[in-house]
Amino acid sequence: MIPRVLSGIQPSGNLHIGNYLGALGNWVKMQHQFESIFCIVDLHAITVYQKPEELRTSIREMAGIFLAAGIDPKHSRIVVQSTVPAHSELAWLLTCVTPMGWLERMTQFKAKAAAQESVGDGLFQYPVLMAADILLYQANLVPVGEDQMQHVELARDIAQRFNSLYGETFVMPATKIAEVGARIMGLDDPTSKMSKSATGAGHRVGLLDPPEKIKKTIMKATTDSNSAVDFETMGPGVRNLLSIFQAFSGWTNEQMRQHFAGLRYGDLKKQVAEMTISHLEPMQTRYREITADPTYLDRILQEGADIVTPIANSTVELVKERMGIYTKAR
Ligand code: TYM
Question: What's the DSSP call for residue 32?
Answer without folding.
Answer: G
